[in-house]
Amino acid sequence: MPVDKPTQALLEQIAIAVRVLDFSSLDKAAATALHAALADQLEYHNHRYYVLDDPSIDDAEYDRLFQALLQLELGAPELGSAESPSRRVGAKPLGSFDSATHKIPMLSLDNVFSADALRDFDKRLRARLATRSRPESSAASSDAPIVKASTGQLPLDYICEPKLDGVALSLSYENGILVQAATRGDGRVGENITDNARTIASVPLRLRGNDFPAQLEVRGEVVMPITEFNQFNQNALAAGEKVFVNPRNAAAGSLRQLDSRITAKRPLQLFAYSIGHHAEGAIDATHFETLQALKRWGFKVNEHVHRAATIDECIEYCEHLAQLRSSLDYAIDGIVFKINDFSLQSELGFVARAPRWAIAFKFPAEEASTTLVDIDWQVGRTGAITPVAKLEPIFVGGVTVSNATLHNADEIERLDVRVGDRVVIRRAGDVIPQVARVDLSARPSSSQQASGKPRIPSQCPVCNSTVERLDGEAVLRCTGGLVCRAQLKQSIVHFSSRKALDIDGLGDKLIEQLVDTQLIANVADLYLLSQDQIASLERMADKSARNLIESLERSKATELGRFLYALGIREVGETTASNLANHFGTLAAIESASLDALLEVSDVGEIVAAHVVAFFANAENTQLIERLVQQGIGWPVIVVDSESSKDLPLHGQTWVVTGKLINMTRDEAKADLRALGAKVAGSVSSKTNCVVAGPGAGSKLDKAQALDVEVIDEQEFLARRADWLDG
Ligand code: IVH
């Protein structure tokens, strides 16, 4: 790739400046010229080192140039402009990040998990392109005839790229100068992290060449190389500091530092993969050419990008990259396939959060075998006692795993797992690691006997209360209620969680201490804590105590749905809580609602209704609520309104989402359904119109089938959703 060579005269000028490190005799014009020359040189070498991986000077020489630049700026601070390499060391810490609205939303990708699904994707695109209208054939496109093209031969070039497992970043350039960097956030609004992004050596502060649009947004993924990640964790461990669980968290944590001087010390890298918003005018016609342009402008583009002429070639690429994966120094979790031709991309368009013209092929779950050291029984908020496998630490799916879930006593039975066994651990994406199976051939003789089977507790391991197991239920439950410290702690964790009262700074460890030192015996006591009391606890400084008092104060202004959810009523999840709030409008109305009145709420079946009635019939609960309200917790009144969604396609319908979804989270599916006008229920009843069921769906699916309620899978949901959204 051509890189501008500095002129001889410039080099000499710089050499002198570097030698004497004294610029006091320079007039303003000379200082400015010298500064520009030094900045160019530094960015030239920076690019060679971090982007091209082909340095031509050594570190010491680079440092001398850098010192000269800093010295020059010391005497003339106005030279330290936005694109000066001096910005790479970080800037003054911020109090918080400003928000940054994306001119074009940052979308996500739909996923596939098999070669067949990839072929289906290709077929879908071909079918869609075959029955398209041809707007270019007529100015008034609405009159344009629908042209049936032959689908088979349509050439469809794909660009195959590693799906980097890092953090998405948007970089905005004006006349070639980096003016803003933003995180993805919710896709529409992210955080302005410009100071931090400037510290990433492979982020150009000024674009190279001169053929870029006056306004250009470049998008890419920030990663921490695996070797650097390991080194970072080793150092952190030695210093007794926090380690990151995987390179992606390390990149995310580093990018979200309010003090960019900390980010500057983290070895982050940016791979550019697309352009977003740009000024009208010259932009290449294909994605592949755009990637070449990004390289010319100074970005690092992944070296394994490949152009494929057929979907079979894409599938070959999957195999090729899966082989390469373990030799790469950055984490990847799949492959992204994108239609190369931009005009086809824009014809295909988008569905909700994802483009139709791209797809992510996700690598299958990774497995590794290790030894089961012990089985721990953990007590949750509602008293459910869950077995957790304690493992000899093992690296699988990009993280070191030392715990895996065993789900429940039935699962222990099914796996026939015993302490000391070799077990296979499976981990996919962010899902909690699971014990997939036991290697029986490696079972030590000491646990061959049936007596080696794990003992299922009959008393709560925390409070010794009796454990009950209802007929037909796999779950063991502690009967201790809030007398059980484990349940109490978990109920406080739940109360303060993000979707509940969102009390920032109240972590699990702190809750543990607050309960163990008996500073609090319930959630209402939280609001009586003084700053001194909090500061007296281990690992708590005055500042964090003050912050916690402030977030407790902030949490008082909440919403009725959140408050209800925070109370932790059995079976009342976030959706049910919000439906109850919207249906009744006030807490008093919910408290006094009869079973029948509760059953009116679309989401509420008999079990949920019974739990709600039982909760409010318990005087301890109502007294607790009274105390919380006395301490100032409140919410705006809800005006019950069912008019506004009348024209939406799913108005008046009730849907249920259950099981594991692949392309989206259940929360995302529910949000889509609500946006389409549906009510989303947490349980199936005769009032349910349709159930979206993914793998692992259990009793809700059974009930839907028993009641003859329509059940569809995720693919069908996606297809219908696309039609509804298309309108
Ligand atoms: S293209 C709408 N290309 O994957 C197009 N994304 O699930 C989406 N990602 O948020 C972006 N490597 O952070 C694209 N080569 C690549 C990618 C990539 C990683 C991430 C990106 C995005 C997420 C989408």
Write the SSE topology.
Layout (H helix, E strand, L loop, with lengths): L7 H13 L7 H24 L7 H17 L23 E3 L9 E2 L2 H16 L27 E7 L2 E8 L2 E7 L5 E3 L2 H5 L16 E9 L2 H13 L8 H9 L4 H6 L3 E10 L8 H10 L9 E3 L2 H14 L7 E8 L2 H7 L1 E2 L2 E2 L2 E5 L3 E14 L4 E13 L2 E7 L3 H7 L6 E6 L6 E5 L28 E2 L7 E3 L6 H12 L11 H9 L6 H4 L4 H5 L6 H14 L4 H7 L7 H11 L2 H5 L3 H5 L6 H12 L1 H12 L23 E5 L7 H10 L3 E3 L8 E4 L5 H8 L3 E3 L1 H13 L1
Parallel strand pairs: 2-13, 21-22, 21-23, 23-24
Antiparallel strand pairs: 1-6, 3-9, 3-10, 4-5, 4-7, 7-8, 10-13, 11-12, 14-15, 14-17, 15-16, 15-20, 17-18, 19-20
Descriptive overview:
The protein has 26 helices and 24 strands. The chain is α+β, with helices and mostly antiparallel strands and 727 residues long. The protein has 5 domains: 8-80, Helix hairpin bin (Helix Hairpins, Orthogonal Bundle), CATH 1.10.287; 158-362, 2-Layer Sandwich (D-amino Acid Aminotransferase, Chain A, domain 1); 366-452, OB fold (Dihydrolipoamide Acetyltransferase, E2P) (Beta Barrel); 481-555, DNA polymerase, domain 1 (Orthogonal Bundle), CATH 1.10.150; 641-727, Rossmann fold. The strands form 6 sheets. Strands 14, 15, 16, 17, 18, 19 and 20 form a 7-stranded antiparallel β-sheet that branches. Mean pLDDT is 88; it is low at 135-151. Bound molecules: 2-(butylsulfanyl)adenosine (IVH). 2-(butylsulfanyl)adenosine binds at residues 107-109, 161, 163-164, 168, 184, 221, 273-274, 336, 355, 358, 360. The site of 2-(butylsulfanyl)adenosine (IVH) has 15 residues, from β3, β8 and β13.
